[in-house]
Design goal:
heterotetramer; A: about 350 residues; Glutathione S-transferase Yfyf (Class Pi), Chain A, domain 2; Rossmann fold; 4-stranded parallel β-sheet; 8 strands; about 45% helix; C: about 110 residues; mainly alpha; about 0% strand
């Protein structure tokens, strides 16, 4: 692999990322899958990096799931998104940072549509006014939250307590980075490093001491694909796609995966369990599976947050093997303690996957 | 008395031969199909047996067919076979008259002159003596030709000569030595005892001038006996097995046995009857035009005999049947090639579930089946449709929208079972139509319909059918004076004996010219479906040569009656190549044209097609 | 085993690295013209069997060369060997012998 | 020795330029060839063997340099033209180093530039060690050294990818570069010649064998050398753990996606116009084709004339052409130039005579 060439590609895809005063928009599904991630993101930005991040409790779904499953018409989606812009404008912000790649993609799509068809924008403004009596300015800077972490990766490195290195061997960890399709495949210019060799996660991993694995199916979709996952009968497609990726990355013996998309991190994690139960296969050497982190969780660990505070107990594939490699101290018994100190109960053990 | 140690090799040889032959004959006869044995029983005491004897005499001894191919070659075979036969018969008679009794030690006549050195007095015996010398002379002349021919085939009118296996060579040399040695031993004996005749005595006297003939004689007799013994023993393991086997073959064949779709004891006898004369090499277009002289029947049968048959030797044959016509032994060669192609591994009869079953078929008295190939030369089926119309015949075009293959292509590539599935499908359709006449334009289909379909209705190739229509005055054809040469399709000519009908039809309205190689000896167009593994170059070479040959009589039109032949020849022919049906239609149309403007025509004016 | 209501699919992708080329090699050895195809499809267009059933000699040949030989025996059994394909092939491929050798190969290389 | 005072400047000392120079020289004109490189010969210098008969490129180079027996042209190397300005019936040619030339007529033969394959990011040129272009391969072939991949091993399986940067709206070039197909076939055979045991696969959209003996070479590649042609455009290349390359394409003729691994992948990069050609063209107010090549006056009857009288074009600066076509094109251009010069000369004289009479 000749990184020179890659660098040249990355230089072509530099995007402007505002460095403060963000209007934060949450993801619908992550709060249930990996609730720690967004909290961790806010902690890091507000407490550690001393950034101004504002979020509005009134903000709703971007309708991405509905839109991509063809049950919400484009105009509705645009109006809902216009409302988010309105909330942002009212709060006096110009930089919007969705935490969800689907939302990010959709926002980008909407803004791009308006750029080409001002008449549609006008119509949407009209709809929004009729529906909510709100007005908005289009954001000056739209980036995904992973772009923010990417921007501050070196600051985080300076403040970090842990680096992505195997304590026992002293060697950098092998990390698989997975980029959500909607991050840059639709609008390569909108992603750091473009669509072919996105640099957003690579940047973090390398900055924090890990090495990135470039495996053949790197580009491949995790398999979420809305219709594929949401219709039970279609889930075979979804899991097959993930399987394809796992098979392709297995020879590289990754220590963990990191994704920047709610769906991806969810499926790369959960499908390992499904495949294990269906076919008795795992893609690591000792049957525990390959841990999957969100980039916020990865940042959190690097910053030395407690694994249980950032919600790693919510993962299907147990993260303990990874924590051991990183040499992070943790108490097994604390794993299932709630914030109130009460035990929240343990999930049922899978038949095959070792947890 | 009448014994000397040197007779042992000969005697032993004879015994071994006798035993081996007995064993083989018993095996083969027991391998005959059940039906065959009844046939033998039924025919044993009929005139057929006499025919057989006559044929044995004509072919095995006189080699009539070989004579036909080339007189010198014929003389060579005759002098050896018939000459040797006479030596045995006359020799036996000689001893009979000498000893007065018929039963003697069986080697006694062979070495008669050794055992009876005292010169004869009686003029009868002297005559016999002379006769024996003469016959020996004839045989020796045959040997001389054989030896020359080995080194210069053209002497006997052959371009290519069989390449023999080592076993065969050994036998050949033994055979060549027998008679010269006989000459030497008898001469040597004559040299000191004076019991020789005009040849042996003179050679003997000459030898006696400078050789100790008395001591030498015994040495020559030993060598003579050894060479005889050696040859006898080698017979069952060499091509000379054909000598005893062919006789058996001729009888069985005359009793009405042939090789059908199964390999039987008779097939084995046929194969063993091949003398490897190599006549099939020259007649084969794969050799003469395709420049491939390794795939001919003689090699096929040889390799089969020594169980070292390679697939390509089985596959690389046009199945044109020219070798059948030429084979002096009259073996059904192509049938054997076909039987060797018959392999279980190819049979997947399950594949034809998609074939139409019990589909309703329109009821008609006449059905027309164009055949797969005709669909690639639609001019043929179009012509037939016009002809039916003109002749006012209500018919059904059974495969108008494409054919289900007749099954023969599968069969001739060894897939008999699979072929049956196609046969069944088409057969059902044909019968359902209630037709009384089935007309086809494809000789391949024709042969298949005739032989494999067991239809009890009339099956006609369109060349036959058109002739009928014309004779029934349903088609008015008018002389055009165009010079036409007719190409016999293999499957129609040699395959189904349809030679006359197309010629009668053509000569009725065109000037039909003959060409040397036609009818039984017609060339194959090269397009044959019979050959599976022929490469494009070989195929083109044959197509080109055949087209060239037909053009050599510079006709205005080359006529044929097979879509495949039409395609193959047209590819390389300057002269237009037309199917017989096209020519009929052209003639009819020319006529109707002329009728429109009849007043402008003078009486008796011929019509151009 | 619990019922998931869906299953892991085997992709349609031709996985060249893990495919079986024994048949293709056998045929190429015995009938080299097997390689000459340019996929024009005239064979399938004229095919007597293709008129009546789902049979595609061009595609079949291609899949063999890609090492996709599952169900090959059933497919090849549909051929009537009538030889029309051989007459129309612009590259002069000995199609009937190819078919014949596919059958041989199925026997010598595999019991499929 | 020039027998005609009129001065012709040829911009570009590649095959087209040199061929034209020798023709015009023989016709007795005073010719100056301006070559931006330090040596004339253009892309032919890189090329090893020429399709379809594998003739050594030196043969053509020799022909070009031998063309100057009588009345050789003045050849300036390292002469980088920046602009061509029409000036009172003549043309002023300005060089980057400040030099300038006057010419009665100008022939532009600035050739083409190889499409920058890095732009097809999905193919990972300059990212994966064993992805190279047809140019890189040709250079390697010219050395005569055995073909090796980065790790110094002999490649066992090689892929050629056709239409890289051609017939591809994503790369901005919808035109066909014409010569890549046959180059792919030629190079595939050259690889089989040197590595008989290697497997060679060509991934194509259409094979455009337009030239004499091109189709024959394609057949030879299949029949004699056993090169496999797969109809389908490669969608992406990824690197396996062992640095071999995983290709994904649709095997369109079987209607199935296909995944294969290769030791070496050769991108048949297309032809694009030289950026300098565009500058020069603009300076002389010339028109351009949709592919941004220099446009001829008429696509049938005058491909070598331009909308600016006295400026002519030939070779691959006006459209992708093979070497043979380029030379033919150059010769054709010279005929048009000569007749143009004759007319102008006479009209020039006429005007002089007219003035005398007044």
């Amino acid at each position: 692999m000749e990184t020179e060439g890659k660098k040249r590609v990355w230089e072509e895809y530099q995007k402007e990322i505002a460095d403060d005063h963000y209007f934060y928009v949450r993801s619908c599904i992550r709060q249930t899958f990996f609730p720690g991630s967004e909290t961790t993101f806010l902690k890091i930005l507000q407490n550690d990096l001393k950034k101004d991040v504002f979020e509005d409790a009134r903000h709703t779904t971007c309708t991405g799931i509905g839109y991509h499953t063809d049950i919400v018409p484009l105009e509705t989606t645009m109006t809902v998104i216009a409302r988010h812009f309105a909330l942002m404008t009212e709060a006096g912000y110009v930089n919007i940072i969705p935490s969800c790649v689907t939302s990010f993609g959709l926002y980008t799509e909407v803004l791009d549509t308006w750029r080409h068809f001002p008449e549609i924008e006008a119509k949407i403004r009209e709809y929004l006014w009729k529906a909510t009596k709100r007005e908005f300015k289009v954001p000056e800077n739209l980036v995904h939250t992973s772009d923010i972490i990417y921007k501050f990766r070196n600051r985080i490195k300076d403040l970090s307590k842990v680096s992505l290195i195997n304590k026992k061997t002293g060697l950098p960890l092998n990390v698989v980075e997975h980029i959500g399709c909607h991050y840059s495949k639709m609008f390569p210019q909108s992603g750091v490093g473009g669509a072919e060799f996105p640099a957003v996660l690579t940047g973090m991993i390398e900055a924090w001491g890990g090495t990135v694995i470039d495996y053949p199916e790197r580009r491949h979709c995790c398999g979420f694909g809305f219709r594929q996952y949401l219709v039970k009968a279609n889930r075979g497609y979804s899991v097959s796609n993930s399987k394809k990726k796992f098979e392709s990355m297995q020879p590289y013996q990754p220590d963990f995966m990191v994704a920047n998309c709610p769906g991806c991190s969810m499926f790369l994690d959960r499908w390992q369990y499904t495949i294990a139960e269906m076919e008795g296969i795992t893609y690591d050497s000792n049957g525990t599976g390959i841990p999957v982190l969100t980039y916020e969780e990865m940042a959190g660990l690097v910053m030395g947050y407690s694994p249980w505070d950032i919600g790693l107990q919510m993962h299907q594939v147990s993260v303990e093997p990874l924590l051991d490699k990183l040499g992070i101290e943790y108490k097994k018994e604390d794993k299932y303690l709630g914030s109130n100190g009460q035990n929240i109960g343990e999930p049922q053990k899978p038949m095959f996957l070792i947890v | 008395m009448h014994f000397n140690l040197f007779v042992v090799p000969f005697t032993a040889g004879m015994l071994i031969l006798a035993i081996l032959l007995a064993v083989r004959y018993i095996k083969w006869l027991s391998d005959l199909e059940a039906g065959n044995r009844n046939e033998i029983g039924g025919n044993l005491f009929t005139i057929k047996t006499l025919y057989a004897i006559r044929e044995v005499f004509m072919e095995s001894l006189l080699h009539r067919k070989v004579f036909k191919t080339n007189p010198l070659l014929g003389y060579m075979h005759m002098s050896l076979a018939f000459g040797w036969f006479l030596l045995i018969v006359v020799g036996k008679l000689e001893t009979f008259f000498y000893t007065g009794k018929f039963a003697n030690k069986f080697y006694y006549p062979v070495f008669f002159r050794f055992f009876e050195p005292t010169p004869h007095k009686s003029s009868l015996l002297l005559a016999f003596n002379a006769l024996m010398d003469f016959v020996l002379l004839v045989v020796l002349s045959g040997i001389v030709i054989a030896i020359l021919r080995r080194f210069r085939p053209r002497i006997a009118g052959m371009k290519k000569i069989t390449k023999h296996s080592p076993g065969d060579r050994l036998a050949l040399i033994a055979l060549w030595l027998i008679f010269p040695l006989r000459l030497l031993s008898e001469s040597a004996t004559a040299g000191y005892s004076g019991n020789g005749s005009f040849m042996t005595q003179s050679v003997g006297n000459f030898m006696a001038l400078f050789l100790p003939v008395h001591q030498l004689a015994i040495v020559f007799w030993w060598m003579y006996s050894i060479s005889l013994g050696l040859f006898m023993v080698s017979i069952p393991f060499s091509r000379y097995m054909h000598i005893p086997t062919e006789i058996l073959l001729i009888f069985l064949r005359n009793w009405g046995i042939k090789t059908k779709d199964h390999f039987s004891g008779f097939s084995e006898i046929e194969i063993q009857s091949c003398s490897r004369c190599g006549i099939c090499i020259d007649t084969c277009q794969m050799n003469s035009q395709g420049k491939n002289s390794t795939t001919q029947m003689v090699y096929f049968l040889r390799d089969y005999r020594y169980n070292q048959l390679r697939p390509d030797l089985t596959d690389n044959c046009l199945l044109c049947g020219r070798c059948n016509e030429a084979c002096p032994v009259g073996i059904d060669l192509t049938q054997h090639r076909l039987l060797q192609r018959k392999k279980k591994e190819f049979e997947i009869p399950s594949g034809f579930k998609y074939l139409p079953v019990n589909q309703p078929v329109e009821k008609k008295d006449v059905i027309y089946f164009a055949g797969c190939m005709s669909h690639l030369s639609p001019v043929i089926s179009r012509s037939m449709e016009k002809i039916f119309k003109t002749a006012k015949i209500s018919y059904l075009f059974l495969d108008k929208n494409g054919s289900v293959c007749c099954g023969r292509p599968l069969k001739i590539s060894g897939q008999f079972e699979a072929a049956q599935k196609l046969v069944a499908s088409n057969r059902q359709q044909i019968i359902a139509s209630g037709a009384k006449i089935l007309v086809t334009s494809c000789p391949i289909c024709y042969k298949s319909f005739k032989e494999d379909y067991h239809l009890n209705i009339r099956v006609l190739h369109h060349s036959e059918y058109l002739l009928e229509l014309m004779l029934q005055k349903k088609l008015a054809l008018h002389p055009s004076g165009k010079k036409v040469v007719y190409h016999d399709p293999c499957e129609l000519g040699r395959g189904s004996d349809i030679y006359i009908q197309p010629r009668m039809l053509l000569s009725h309205f065109m000037e039909l010219v003959t060409i040397d190689q036609e009818k039984e000896n017609a060339l194959c167009c090269g397009g044959s479906l019979g050959n599976l593994s022929i490469n494009p170059e070989e195929r083109n070479a044959i197509q080109m040569a055949t087209a060239g040959y037909l053009n050599s009589v510079d006709p205005e039109i080359i006529a044929t009656s097979c879509p495949m032949c039409k395609k193959s020849i047209a590819q390389f022919s300057a002269t237009p190549v037309k199917d017989i049906a096209e020519l009929v239609v052209a003639n009819l149309e020319a006529l109707s044209e002329s009728q429109k403007s009849l007043k402008h025509h003078k009486v008796g004016q011929t019509i151009e097609i | 085993m619990k019922d998931w209501g869906y299953s892991i699919l085997k992709g349609r992708q031709i996985d060249f690295e893990n495919n079986d080329f024994s048949i293709a090699e056998y045929i190429t050895k015995h009938e080299p013209s097997f390689r000459w195809c340019i996929g024009c499809g005239s064979c399938t267009a004229t095919c007597s069997a293709a008129r009546l059933t789902d049979f595609n000699p061009r595609k079949l040949k291609l899949l063999i060369q890609r090492g996709e030989i599952k169900g090959l025996a059933d497919e090849i059994a549909k051929c009537m060997l009538c030889g029309k394909c051989q007459l129309v092939c612009p590259r002069g491929i000995n199609t009937r012998n190819v078919i014949q050798n596919i059958k041989r190969a199925l026997n010598t290389c595999h019991a499929l | 020795m020039a027998i005609n005072s009129q001065h012709i400047v040829i911009i570009g000392g590649g095959p087209a330029g040199l061929e034209a120079a020798s023709c015009l020289g023989t016709a007795g004109y005073r010719v100056t060839v301006l070559e931006k490189e330090k040596q004339t010969g253009g892309k032919l210098l890189i090329w090893d063997k020429l399709f379809p008969e594998f003739r050594n490129s030196d043969k053509v180079l020799n022909h070009l340099s031998n063309g100057f027996k009588t009345n050789p042209p003045q050849i300036l190397t390292n002469a980088e033209v920046v602009s061509v300005i029409p000036e009172n019936g003549q043309h002023r040619i300005n060089l980057s180093d400040g030099q300038a030339f006057q010419a009665d007529t100008v022939l532009i033969t600035t050739g083409f530039k190889l499409y920058n394959a890095e732009k097809k990011e999905e193919y990972g040129y300059q990212i994966y060690e064993n992805v190279i272009t047809s140019f890189d391969l040709e250079k390697q072939l010219k050395t005569g050294n055995p073909i090796r991949i980065e790790a110094g091993l002999t490649p066992r399986r090689i892929a050629f990818i056709h239409c890289v940067g051609s017939r591809d709206i994503k790369s901005g070039n919808i035109y066909c570069s014409r010569t890549c197909c046959i180059t792919g076939v030629k190079q595939a055979i050259e690889i089989k010649r040197r590595l008989p045991d290697a497997e060679v696969f060509n991934f194509y959209m259409d094979l455009r064998m337009f030239g004499q003996n091109f189709e024959e070479l394609y057949i030879e590649a299949q029949q004699k050398w056993g090169v496999t042609f797969i109809r389908g455009r490669v969608s992406e290349i990824a690197e396996n753990k062992d640095n071999s390359l995983q290709l994904k394409a649709e095997d369109t003729l079987s209607g199935r996606p296909i995944k294969m691994s290769f030791d070496l992948v050769v991108l048949l990069a297309g032809m694009v116009p030289e950026p300098r050609t565009v500058e020069i063209g603009k300076s002389a107010a010339l028109e351009f084709t949709s592919g941004n090549f220099l446009a001829g006056l008429d696509s049938h009857i005058s491909q070598n004339e331009t909308n600016t009288p006295g400026i002519f074009i030939a070779g691959t600066c006006r459209e992708p052409l093979s070497v043979a076509e380029t030379l033919t094109d150059a010769r054709a251009a010279t005929v048009k130039m000569i007749s143009w010069l004759r007319e102008n000369e006479t009209s020039h004289k006429k005007s002089l005579i007219k003035r005398d009479n007044d």
